[in-house]
Amino acid sequence: MSTSTDTSHATTTAACPACRHLRKSAARYSTGYTVTPSVGGGWMQWSGALLRLLQRTGSEPTRALLIEQPSRTERYVQVLVGHGVAHAEASSNEYLEGASRLSGVEERLLTLLGWVAPNPRSSNPDEVSTNWTLPLVHGDWTNLVETITATLVGIFRLSEQLPVEMNLFLADHPCRACSWPNEEFDDEHDINDSYGTLGF
Hints:
Blueprint: H1 17-24, E1 31-35, H2 43-57, E2 63-68, E3 76-82, E4 85-90, H3 104-112, E5 132-133, E6 137-138, H4 141-155, E7 164-170, H5 176-179
Antiparallel strand pairs: 1-7, 2-3, 2-7, 3-4, 4-5, 4-6
Helix pairs in contact: 2-4
């Protein structure tokens, strides 16, 4: 299983001063949660907590969020999120084996939810993808959480009775310019790189 978030759309300029500065304090941007939904009130409460997490951290330096239930399946969702933008991916059969592989019906359901099928052999480097992807999300955390929850529960069949692991860590290129080089931002409402309080 691959657990690395696709950052191919981000620049690989390792010498970026802003990214270097953020990487020095990477530990404070990283955290992990293990939550059993049935203990905390079910999937509705779990998704509410995920929404609050994205609302708190979505405008901060770019981080990767990995959501999985390894005790049940290899399937996962991962999100690159920061500076008000998010790029979400759902695991594909490129990385899944055995009972974790997606059926044709499940792949059609992903399409109905808005996921775009993997395209690993595209001649256009900007379109290469080995996972299912969503169009870039610009601050609409509610819709993103609804799609993620529907995917995890309705298609990936995560169990409400088993722990769900969530790991949040600083992206390789966390500054705004490196994370989202093709995105336009309103400089009058520039998102700073201050550290916010985490919690789930």
